[in-house]
């Protein structure tokens, strides 16, 4: 039986497991930010943008599709695993071959030297898709957290050790490859205790055919979402340089920590719990109302805290060589409340088997996000770019929940929006303060 208690229990397990990973991730960022310069981070970040694109090509919506399965034969399981290994190998080779293209596009010194490390990360990411989906389906959040924690600790330790032995750029680029390899090995081992069992390389690639209907829309959403969320890094890296990209990337990374703590830690639990009750729209809508209202209050508190404490957050997390991050993170914090809630919407669309609406909403989101990014980059002003992004996030919140309530839950949107008013008051206060403060 689906109850608020069952959902919150699953969410609590997911959050407890992930918080340990996030804590180590934050400590890692604090240490590495003091070892490597913004230019070094920016050079790696420039290539990571394209890694994320190849990442979604490898995943292709397969993970969520596996989570929704009620049965899976050993032959099909191994066929899916063999398929992802093959795709990962091919995409890694293509990515490595594109090193001269990345250098030509960015015109950033030594950016091509980062590519081999990222290509290796891509292969291990693809290899992890099936084992990780099997663990998520079982709600094995502690095992997933152990894998993530180990990957972060090992990769950070390797980067720190290599920083004293080899070129800093190579030392930092190594982190992603070591992390992906460690994550795969541990996830694959843990998947042996799932209902479907540990996958082995198989040749039955046709096993993917029954999943194409769901995964196709999911892939379409991921594809569009990639450009709406990463075009800023691409254009900043090309037109403003590695140093400014490093500043912006770190600002965005800090802004994402409240999302990681309040949303990313929760979303893995939502789809596995809700999917079994997808036919009861009324009950899920009521549960969603309660859940998102509480989440909006937490998001408002997190955004306001980041807004008021931006100076201390940057100094403590990054050090005094990153002071240019302060005004950027203060603007981005205004979007935290709405992003905290919006980031859970995808899991509800997936659980209700409405990947088609997720794709449609994502397409509209991309239009607004890309427009904001292009206008901001044309102005050559990162702070103005962030203001445009804040506006785009709020527009996307409204259109996304319009589709969820009108098309999925079959209920009016106005009642839901009224519950968001307390968080809206906090957002309005931050905007008002920013306008008054910038005037003087």
UniProtKB/TrEMBL annotation:
UniProt KW Cell membrane keyword: yes
Source organism of the structure: Zobellella iuensis
Family matches, as InterPro entries: Poly_Biosynth_Transport (IPR050833)
Lineage top rank: taxon: Bacteria
Transmembrane regions: 20-37, 43-67, 79-108, 114-135, 254-274, 295-319, 325-345, 357-378, 384-404, 416-436
Chief location: membrane
Record localization: Cell membrane
Keywords for this protein: Cell membrane, Membrane, Transmembrane, Transmembrane helix
Pfam families, sorted: Polysacc_synt_3
Presence of the UniProt keyword Zinc-finger in the record: no
Protein name: Oligosaccharide flippase family protein
Topology of this chain in the membrane: Multi-pass membrane protein
Protein family per UniProt: Belongs to the polysaccharide synthase family.
């Amino acid at each position: 039986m689906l109850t608020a208690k069952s959902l919150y229990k699953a969410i609590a397990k997911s959050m407890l497991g992930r918080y340990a990973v996030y804590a180590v991730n934050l400590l890692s960022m604090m240490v590495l930010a003091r070892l490597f310069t913004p230019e070094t981070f920016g050079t790696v970040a420039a290539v990571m943008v394209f890694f994320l694109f190849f990442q979604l090509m490898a995943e292709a919506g397969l993970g969520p599709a596996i989570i929704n399965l009620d049965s899976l034969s050993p032959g099909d399981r191994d066929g899916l695993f063999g398929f992802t290994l093959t795709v990962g190998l091919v995409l890694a080779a293509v990515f490595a071959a594109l090193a001269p293209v990345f250098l030509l596009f960015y015109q950033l010194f030594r950016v091509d030297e980062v590519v081999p490390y990222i290509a290796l990360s891509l292969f291990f990411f693809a290899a992890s898709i099936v084992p990780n989906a099997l663990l998520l389906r079982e709600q094995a959040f502690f095992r997933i957290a152990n894998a993530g924690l180990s990957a972060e600790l090992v990769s950070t330790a390797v980067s720190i050790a290599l920083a004293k032995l080899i070129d800093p750029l190579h030392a930092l680029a190594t982190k992603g490859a070591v992390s992906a390899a460690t994550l795969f090995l541990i996830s694959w081992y843990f998947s042996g205790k799932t209902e479907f069992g540990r996958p082995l390389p198989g040749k039955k690639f046709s096993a993917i055919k029954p999943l194409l209907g769901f995964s196709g829309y999911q892939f379409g959403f991921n594809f569009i979402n990639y450009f709406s969320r990463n075009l800023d890094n691409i254009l900043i890296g090309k037109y403003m340089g590695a140093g400014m990209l490093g500043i912006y990337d770190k600002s965005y990374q800090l802004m994402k920590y409240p999302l990681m703590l309040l949303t990313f830690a929760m979303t893995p639990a939502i789809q596995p719990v809700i999917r079994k009750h997808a036919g009861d729209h009324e009950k899920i809508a009521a549960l969603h109302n309660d859940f998102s209202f509480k989440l909006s209050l937490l998001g408002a508190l997190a955004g306001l805290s980041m807004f008021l404490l931006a100076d201390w957050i940057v100094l403590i997390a990054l050090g005094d060589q990153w002071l240019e991050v302060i005004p950027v993170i203060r603007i981005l914090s205004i979007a935290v409340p709405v992003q905290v809630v919006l980031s859970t919407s995808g899991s509800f669309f997936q659980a209700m088997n409405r990947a088609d609406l997720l794709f449609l909403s994502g397409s509209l989101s991309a239009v607004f996000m890309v427009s904001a990014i292009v206008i901001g980059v044309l102005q050559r002003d990162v702070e103005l770019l962030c203001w445009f992004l804040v506006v785009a996030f709020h527009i996307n919140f409204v259109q996304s929940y319009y589709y969820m309530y009108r098309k999925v839950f079959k209920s009016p949107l106005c009642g839901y929006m009224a519950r968001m008013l307390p968080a809206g008051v906090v957002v309005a206060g931050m905007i008002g303060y920013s306008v008054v403060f910038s005037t003087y």
